[in-house]
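Because discrete structure vocabularies remain unfamiliar, we first show an illustrative case, written as a sequence plus integers encoding its fold.
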Amino acid sequence: MQKFLSAALLLFFLTGCASSRLRSRGATVPLRVQLNRQHSVNFAGYYQAEEQGFYARHGLRVSLLPGGTRGETIFDPAEILLSGQSEFAVLSFAQYQRIAADERQPLVVLATFQISPLVFISFQEQGIERIQDMYGKRVAIPSPDWQNVVNRVLENVGMSPEDITQVSLDTPEMDDFYRQRVDVWPGYLTDEGVQVLLDGYRVNTIFASNYGWNTYEGLLVTTQPYASAHPENITALVDATLEGWHYTFAHHRETVSLLTARYPEHSRLYYELGLEYLRPLVDTGEVPLGWIDYTRWRTLLNLSDTNFQGYDMRFVETAHLQE
């Protein structure tokens, strides 16, 4: 991160701070954040920002809307954002990549995961220890976005989608994996990777990041028109959310208790392990929380258009300058 502020950033910083202070003494601003999965440890920093009053202190009333699949309804967080049903969404890199060139101009303002938590899970007896070992195997495809991930990692080892049996799932459930209807299950280390162990199975886990899918994940996304109209809201949301993540990592047991109380469908051990797995993927100690590197970002998106950015780190910079 730069050690000094440009005049533009200084003006942005002062304006954002002033706006937050003024709003904190007035009416709160309602914001909707559409999550890309059901409530889980992946959003712990958001929950703590809400629980500890960080959002309220910044003059915000934030609604964290669960995503994923419920019944036969599939929530597409990218489309919910672009259609104006929420001001913000948390997207995977694949979800953002799908809409990056949309005329409604999605804009990334924070990245939760510095290291991708995306993994491929298989039973140990299958002997699948590398992507190459998936040759001829039945691989679950939970969504079109996961299809892109699978295709990319196959391509990176010289394989094609035709080298595996792709099993598309309209309503993906882990039971399909447990009953061995598929050989490989794509998921999150912090979610399915925890659940399969707690259910007593011995599995192999392959990180997508080891095969070229070394992406940022948990992207907090808005749109450029919204950012132009309401930069103070983004400043406040990013600042409070990063406070939430700092609090999460400083209060591990308290955060586990919060998750268990809020979302009792999972056990305390589930959240305990999930948070342990999550921390080194989010807080690497090498860059500030939430950071996106310019060169890495452009490489991931294979960008040649120097006018296209797709992300804005001023808000994260502002948050860290206030620490």
